[in-house]
Amino acid sequence: MSHSGAVRPKHRRAGGMLLAALALTGCVSTEPRIELPYKMEANCENRAVKQTAIESIVASTDDVLRPDRYPGDAALRAVVHRSGGVFAYWHDQPVKLPRTARALGLTQPYVPVERVVITNARGAESRPIWMTIRGPYGERIVLERAFDLQDVCIEGQRDI
């Protein structure tokens, strides 16, 4: 008797499922996840900070240090007040930026980020973000360019 839709033996099916499971585990990222900030200072008017936007914006940087001088907290708070944005704080959040790490004298491809300043003031293709990184020579504030242009604020009630 011929079966066009022949049933596979159970051991073959189980083996196929095992191979599929192994293939999936190879696709799972082992990169440290960007955690939620422990503290945020934001100006979102009657809206809330979109915490996943912060994660996505930080992860979208081009890993190139810019030579600009930090304008200072007061100047950036004025920009955040005018156009929206956030000062987000972590306790040494590892972010994979190998070129930035090398430029700062770090031996690992991750930089320990303590603070990020993201404003909603952005260009057509990117936005500047200021990152405070703790390195072997103390804290350093660096300018990176992020390509995720979403607003850091969402509609809803303010919860910070």
Detailed description of the structure:
The chain has 160 residues and is of the alpha+beta class. The protein has one domain (39-154). The protein is built from four helices and seven strands. It has a five-stranded antiparallel β-sheet with strand order 1-3-4-5-6. A two-stranded antiparallel ribbon has the order 2-7. Strand 4 (110-119) and strand 5 form a beta hairpin. The longest helix has 18 residues, at 10-27. The protein is globular and about 45 Å long. The termini are far apart. The model has no long low-confidence stretch (mean pLDDT 82).
Distance between the termini: 70 Å
Largest sheet: 5 strands, antiparallel
- Write down the domain tally: 1
Which structural category do the helix and sheet elements fall into? alpha+beta
Rounded to an integer, what's the Rg over CA atoms? 22 Å
Strand content: 25-35%
* Cross-sheet strand order for the largest sheet: 1-3-4-5-6
| Unreliable stretches | none
Average pLDDT level: 82
Helix content: 25-40%
- Based on Cα principal axes, name the global outline: globular
SSE succession? HEEHHEHEEEE
Report the count of strand segments. 7
Q: Treating each run of at least 4 consecutive H or I residues as one helix, how many helices?
A: 4
